């Protein structure tokens, strides 16, 4: 198989491989849960409720992405809309059914964490540490700035 040369393409292939495997584990466990739900679920496990804006800000996602994921989670029964301080405020909280599935999910998440550690150990350099270093580097100088420096002779 010929590997694409682009970094973004390789990262998308890696993400797809990881997400597909994790989604398959959820499906085999009889859970309608997606990898993209995980950070939102974790956030809502630690809070009574949160708005779309709070989720987006705390997780580092865009508001449209947070809205889309929260709506999918609500349709799947993982979360529900709960009253806010006023009628206009929409807050989300884990549903009672979701709270009841936490032990089962936690067991899967623990297995995923151990599998990620095994993957890291099999690589020449730990993937998690490399990703963290890349993100930190991009915080110091954006990829756009790096590209522009390469474009300008």
Task: Write a structural description.
The chain is globular. A hairpin with a 6-residue loop joins β1 and β2. 66% of the residues lie in helices and 7% in strands. It has a two-stranded antiparallel sheet. It has 7 helices and 2 strands, in the order ααααββααα. α3 crosses α4.
Layout: helices, strands, pairs:
Blueprint: H1 7-28, H2 38-45, H3 52-59, H4 63-75, E1 79-83, E2 90-94, H5 96-122, H6 127-140, H7 143-151
Antiparallel strand pairs: 1-2
Helix pairs in contact: 3-4
* CATH homology-level superfamily: Winged helix-like DNA-binding domain superfamily/Winged helix DNA-binding domain
Strand-pairing-aware structural class: mainly alpha
Query: How are strands sequenced across the largest beta sheet?
Result: 1-2
Secondary-structure element pattern, one letter each? HHHHEEHHH
Protein name: MarR family protein
Short description:
This protein is mainly α and 153 residues long. It is built from seven helices and two strands; from the N terminus they run ααααββααα.
Characteristics:
single chain; Arc Repressor Mutant, subunit A; 7 helices; two-stranded antiparallel ribbon; 66% helix; mainly alpha; 153 residues
């Amino acid at each position: 198989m010929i590997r694409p040369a682009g970094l973004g393409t390789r990262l998308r292939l890696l993400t797809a491989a990881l997400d597909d495997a994790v989604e398959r584990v959820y499906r085999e466990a009889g859970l309608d849960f997606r990898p993209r739900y995980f950070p939102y679920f974790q956030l809502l496990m630690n809070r009574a409720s949160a708005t779309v804006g709070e989720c987006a800000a705390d997780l580092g996602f865009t508001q449209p992405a947070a809205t889309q994921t929260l709506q999918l989670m609500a349709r799947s029964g993982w979360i529900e809309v709960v009253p806010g301080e006023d009628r206009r405020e929409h807050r989300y909280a884990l549903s009672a059914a979701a709270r009841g599935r936490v032990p089962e999910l936690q067991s899967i998440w623990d297995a995923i964490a151990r599998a990620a550690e095994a993957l890291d150990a099999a690589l020449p350099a730990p993937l998690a540490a490399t990703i963290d270093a890349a993100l930190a580097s991009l915080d110091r100088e954006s990829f756009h700035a790096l590209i522009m420096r390469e474009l300008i002779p």
